[in-house]
Amino acid sequence: xxxxxxxxxxxxxxxxxxxxxxxxxxxxxxxxxxxxxxxxxxxxxxxxxxxxxxxxxxxxxxxxxxxxxxxxxxxxxxxxxxxxxxxxxxxxxxxxxxxxxxxxxxxxxxxxxxxxxxxxxxxxxxxxxxxxxxxxxxxxxxxxxxxxx
Length: 149
Known about the structure:
Layout: E1 18-22, H1 28-40, E2 56-60, H2 71-74, E3 76-80, E4 87-91, H3 92-98, H4 102-109, H5 116-122, E5 125-127, E6 141-142, H6 144-147
Parallel strand pairs: 1-2, 1-6, 2-5
Antiparallel strand pairs: 3-4
């Protein structure tokens, strides 16, 4: 007989916090992994894979995110219109100019679960092109506090 008990997180035990990160000059993939880590709640001692235990993340300066190498011109995003010959290709550079938040959102989304739980987690990500955001009332803490950058 084992004396150890397994802790099961209940929805009432989850305490959500708000984090803010400045994306200016940071590498796209490395920042996306940190954000996905927070959205899933893996930084908390009561992380449960089958529950949304994550926090909210605010990202400012999405348009000024950095990449390594020739990624701005070599990375392509594809989508299809549904018609014959309707494959559209957009480079990362063009995507950052037109929709600065999309590359980071897609990178983070690819690192989250591909189910209803992942859809719930991605809703807690707030991306802004500039430095202004409407979430000052939530008192967001800088993400570097958690990762020690």
